[in-house]
Amino acid sequence: MMDMEVRSTSGAGGGTPPVPVNLRRSKAYYRFTQQNLPACKPVLTPGWVISIFLLTGVIFMPIGLIALHASQSVVEIVYRYDTECIPESFRSNKVAYIKDSSISKNCNQTLKVQKHMKAPIHIYYQLDNYYQNHRRYVKSRSDRQLLHGLNYNATSSCQPEELNNELPIVPCGLIAWSMFNDTYTFSRETAELKVNRKNIAWKSDREHKFGKDVYPFNFQNGTLVGGGKLNPRVPLNEQEDLIVWMRTAALPSFRKLYGRIEVDLEADEFIAVKFVNNYNSYSFGGEKKLVLSTSSWLGGKNDFLGVAYIAVGCCCIFISLLFTLLHVKNPRHESESSPQDSEIQMTTR
Amino acid sequence: MRRYVYIDDSDQQDLYCDNRISNRKYTILNFLPKNLWEQFSRFMNQYFLLIACLQLWSLITPVNPASTWGPLIFIFAVSATKEAWDDYNRYLSDKQANEKEVWVVKQGTKKQIQAQDIHVGNIVWLRENDEVPCDLVLIGTSEPQGICFIETAALDGETDLKTRVIPSACMGIASELLHKIKGVIECSNPDKDIRRFDANLRLFPPFIDNDLCPLTINNTLLQSCYLRNTEWACGVAVYTGNETKLGMSRGIPEPKLTAVDAMIDKLIGAIFLFQIVVVIVLGIAGNVWKDTEARKQWYVMYPTEGPWYELLVIPLRFELLCSIMIPISIKVSLDLVKSLYAKFIDWDEEMYDEETTTPSHATNTAISEDLGQVEYILTDKTGTLTENRMIFRRCCINGIFYGNESGDALKDKELLNAVGSNNPDVIRFLTVMALCNTVVPLKSKSGVISYKAQSQDEDALVHAAARLHMVLVNKNGNILEINFNGLVILYEILDTLEFTSDRKRMSVVVKDCQNEKLILLSKGADEAILPCAVSGKQVRTFVEAVEQYAQLGLRTLCLAWRELREDEYKEWSLMFKDANSTFVDREWKLAEVCQRLEHDLEILGITAIEDHLQDGVPETIETLRKAGINFWMLTGDKQNTAIQIALSCNFISPEPKGQLLLINGKSEDEVCRSIERVLLTMKITTSEPKDVAFVVDGWALEIALKHHRHAFTELAILSRTAICCRVTPSQKAQLVELLKTCDYKTLAIGDGGNDVRMIQQADIGVGISGREGLQAARAADYSIGKFKFLKRLILVHGRYSYNRTAFLSQYSFYKSLLICFIQIFFSFISGVSGTSLFNSVSLMAYNVFYTSIPVVVSVLDKDLSERTVMEHPQILFYCQAGRLLNPSTFAGWFGRSLFHALVVFVVSIHAYADEKSEMDELSMVALSGCIWLQAFVMTMETNSFTILQHLAIWGNLAFFYIINCIVSTIPSAGMYTIMFRLCKQPSYWITMIYLMELLCISAHCDCRDGPGASA
User: Fold this and answer.
1) What is the pLDDT of residues B322-360, one digit of tens each?
2) Which of A208, B268, B491, B880 has the CB geometry, 3.0–4.6 Å to B510, for a possible disulfide?
3) Element (H, E) at B756
4) Catalytic residue among B156, B160, B370, B380
């Protein structure tokens, strides 16, 4: 107490002249210089800790349940077709099959819808063990060329897919070069299921990242052809498959949007899918999957957040119960020690 | 080597430098290269430069080189700007001094030139209150006795006026003739000793061409002094420019490195090693993965034949990726917060001495943390523990004790009667009191006499003599005027045998102007005077008196006199002059000559002077001892006085509780035995709760330090308290050195010139800006007005500084490791190819903006209130033992960052899997996770929230979103629209909340058993 009194008197003498306008500011500055700004000191008493845990548990459980429910409500069909779509005779040498352009790559399969699927149904292709995040791969692109085309020719970052006959390849780089080129057509019973392949890329990418008068005039013309080809008469900002592909994935297993089916699919319905199995995932042991999925407010089917929330919520409640038990068994008498002592105990714990 | 200065001779103009002062480190041209060179001599900067250069190689850089160059240039710019600003200020002050107009005689005519154009040999004229522009030898003044007064505060910090006299050869030259004076001054080469000037002067005809006239420091006017109370003075420039005494003594002291700094450097080294290990392991893994897996991946298109450096590419990429492990900003933030600590000390009003209106001041801004880790305090006694305000209390004249009943001799009727009845013993005693000193009486216009004394003891004696009707009225050159009971007596001072700390006495030879008698008057420490007493005479009463007074804690001086024979004096006087004009070992030779006169003295009596204890000294010592700090008292005073003072200020406890062990002896063997005995007793008593202290005197200490260093060191470690009396300044420094070699943090506190060496030697030097001038305060790292402020300085400022720096540095490591670990984890799922998860903007901003502001504000945190710390000083143990910053606490933070990185990474990649696994989005989710974590960890680690902390923590979080939203609006930026997209997704917010809560729980559990969370 003495400290405080000495301070306030000396403060009145030295720091704050009677100027009412600056009074508050200079006072605050004065207290800053004396390291005496008003401060609150949260002290974690056992009661606080227990109630924080309890509260967290109580809040987390419902959020977890809601998130889990959202994830569960999503209906998903995942079909791995990379092995199914290879004729028996080629099963032992898949790479030769996929590399041989003279063999037809068509392949028909049937999917069964397990549950009612509400439109819009997203069609994804999923690649596993595919390192779109490899350093050599991620860097091999030129964002400015995608926007400005041949007007921009500092494309050294695109190596090793930079030039073709001394002219920059548009679009250059490994990412574009290795574009995914399997296609899917869907039909139910006899009628074809219409797949909307517009608006699958981000609007911002279409408008600001890919040029509207940049044409892939010399794409995949080289000796080594990688993935898909592009229609040279369509500008890049309308090549949505490319735009989607160019958004590299951070994980070695990823899904990319192929299109949307805009009608509901009924349970137990059979859908015929015609695959054109062009893309070489065999040489590196990758997997290709077709995914049909509805969506919820939380996105696609992903139980992680829901389960994680419930787990933490359970933990919290358990810990709070444990602490309560411990606290009841050997309570800390706060009346016995002065606030300062408890302050010291806190630091020396 | 000698320097021959020819007075007013233009031929030698170019021989020595002109008077241009330059304190500048840089010029405009060499600033950039020199400053860069200096900055790059630091290892950290070299490392970062290497990293930045490697990043220019686009094949291996994971991110834009700007992410390292930006912060590097920023940090360099900050330090360079600071240097440039300091240098510019130095330039301005130099310029001001250089361009000052001074009057100088050149070729016999007087003209006004700029101070920088003064050359050696010029005659410089000064008027009252002028600053002396260079080192001058005085040749003329306005005063008829050839004296002038100067104030040397800027040089040695002493505020009293000092007398300077013109050399005897120049005495009596008319002021008009001074223009034409010719001669040669032979002096030593420039040095920095401001107490010595060994030179000779020889004037050329037509001036009296006698033999060499010796010059001493008393004949000089040194640069930066001020001329006072003298109308004019003139002198010959002998040292100019940067060769003056002041210029030579200027120099940048070795920067002191705190224990905390050393620990931080060690930890940086450890991180560096860890980084190398990571780089090697990941580099090998990357190359293996490349050869086994990546070659199969046609889309990566690895060439079959790579260049020769192929194998190095992946390790180097990881090196760059991991370079952020060492926080680039740590040195800058540390410098910043350290100057803030220093400012807090300067600002602190509770350490403001109202009496002398001196605030505390941190001269060295870099070592505040060490204050919190002090283990030994070595303190001076006089002026530090005591007030150094001397009051004459008692005396013993010729065996009769005065002042014993009343405690004040000045009120003792018997003494007053003795003075009244002209008791010859008493009169002689008073004469010595009034004459044997260097006090300058100043008479104001109203006739009141005030005294300017260099030593407080002399001041007390002269004042006491004046109270006893022996008034020193005037000092007119060599003539002293004394008024005794209305009777004016004149004395002429023939020689002054000055006081030195080795001689421990001073004497004057005076001539009584009435009867032409020559008298030697001496005063000094008893052990310096009593052996010189006339043989056969009993000195026992005096020895008893000294002991009795010392028991009372009084300072004693022994006064003596002797009548000299005319021929004896003449003979001696020649020798004295001779010794005075030697160059080699002048001080030693003078002492020897003085010895020849100071013998067969008739002891007149003993004076006892009281020196009050300073306010709050016992409490301060008690508190600091409770805080586990050991105290050593080093004093030049007598053993008994020292012990008495030590008792009265709680330094040692009285008998039953405390025990004093004496180390004494005059020979090696005796000292050895003494030390062994004391050691044995110490070892026995360590089990008992007893305060054991040892007392050692200068003589025994000398032997102990020389021959029994090992045993003495052992003793020093065992003993919490020690009193060393009669020690010299260099012994004080040796003791500090001894404790430092035992790895103790030492703090030396003192107030006088004799403490300067010890203050400079210690880890922390604290000076008391007291009555003995500012010399100690100037040499010290901290200066305070009173001893009692030491408590606050250590317990509040030292402790907070240590805690805050410990947190700040470890937190800086933590945050850098955190983001680095995430990068490393990411490399495991990106084919160990060295892809950076975060983009360049984020990486650059992470260290420089997002995380540095809250951490700098965290230095305002106070874990315990000041009052609590003051009342429970034991809490300082934590800081002393370095519990808050050591390898194990660092391991705690390291583990914490590893854990946090794992959590952030795993949660991000699972919450953002499958169709959401877009690179830019995922990287932003992970980065936001890190930023939220920063806010969370800061909140957990902050003990007291002031408005500034709230602002910094939450403002920083908001700042992060604002910056990223702004960057998200730029179409050409990599993360165009990313932040907006994320903010719209419920899953993003759910993920963030989840991260927080998960870590909150783990932090709580951490608190219970982990070391990392406490503090």
Assistant:
1) 888 888 778 888 888 888 899 899 998 888 888 878 888
2) B491
3) helix B756-761
4) B380
Degrees, nearest 5: CA angle B592-B595-B597 = 125
CB pair distance less than 8 Å for A40 and B945: yes
CB of A309 within 8 Å of a chain B CB? The answer is yes
pLDDT above 60 (res A8): no
Spatial separation of the C-alpha atoms in residues A264 and A101, rounded to whole Å: 37
With contacts defined as CB-CB under 8 Å, which chain A residues touch B915?
122, 124, 254-257, 299-300
What is the DSSP code (8-state) at residue B167? -
Chain A residues within 8 A of B997 when measuring between CB atoms: 56, 60, 312, 316
Question: Residue B936's closest CA among B798, B815, B766, B844?
Answer: B815
Please report which confidence band the pLDDT of residue B251 belongs to, taking 50, 70 and 90 as the band edges.
Answer: low
Burial grade of B85 (CB within 10 A; 0-12, 13-18, 19 or more): exposed
pTM over 0.95: no
- Is B830 close to A131, i.e. CB distance below 8 A? yes
Q: What is the tens place of the pLDDT at every residue in B444-483?
A: 777 788 887 767 788 889 989 888 888 888 887 778 888 8
Handedness of CA B938, B939, B944, B945 (dihedral sign): positive
Distance CA A296, CA A305 (A): 14
Nearest-by-Cβ selection for B300 from A136, A143, A209: A136
Phi/psi for B462 (5° steps) reads: -65, -40
Report the distance separating Cα B160 and Cα B148, nearest Å. 13
Q: Judge contact between B517 and B498, C-beta under 8 A.
A: no
Encoded tokens for B613: 């204890």
Residues 6+ apart with CB under 8 A from A232: A215, A216, A217, A219
Minimum-distance CB partner of A124 among B915, B985, B997:
B915
Q: What is the mean pLDDT of residues B660-667?
A: 82
Phi, psi of B912, deg, nearest 5: -110, 60
pLDDT in tens, A233-269: 888 888 899 999 999 999 999 999 999 998 888 888 8
Interface test mutation site (partner A, options B837, B863, B914, max chain A beta carbons within 10 A)? B914
User: Parallel, antiparallel, or unpaired for β B721-725 and B691-697?
Assistant: parallel
Decide the pairing of beta strands B782-784 and B764-768: parallel
Contact (Cβ atoms closer than 8 angstroms) between residue B102 and residue B133: yes
Asked whether the beta carbons of B62 and B835 are under 8 A apart, the reply is: yes
Query: Per residue in A42-72, pLDDT tens?
Result: 777 788 888 888 998 999 999 999 999 999 9
Query: Hey, is the C-beta of A202 within 8 angstroms of any chain B C-beta?
Result: yes
Percentage of residues in chain B having pLDDT higher than 70: 94
Is residue B377 within 8 Å of B762, Cβ to Cβ?
Answer: no
Task: Pick the residue of A5, A35, A54, A295 with the most B CBs within 10 A to test the interface with B by mutation.
Answer: A35
Tokens of A247: 């958004």
> Chain B contacts of A178, Cβ < 8 Å?
298-299
Asked whether the beta carbons of residue A227 and residue B347 sit closer than 8 angstroms, the reply is no
Pairwise CB contact (< 8 Å): B1007 & A343:
no
Nearest 5°: CA angle at A123, between A121 and A126?
A: 140
Q: Identify the pLDDT of residue B827.
A: 92
Asked, as a colleague might, if the bond just before B206 is cis with ω within 30 of 0, I would say: yes
Whole-angstrom distance, CA of residue B792 vs CA of residue B777: 18
Q: For all residues of chain A together, what is the average pLDDT?
A: 82
Q: B129 near B226, Cβ under 8 Å?
A: yes
Find the mean pLDDT for residues B392-413.
Answer: 84
| ipTM computed for the complex | 0.89
Q: State which amino acid sits at residue B818.
A: L
**Residue B929 pLDDT > 90:** yes
- Which residue's entry shows tokens 């090998």? B284
| Residue B198 a catalytic site member | no
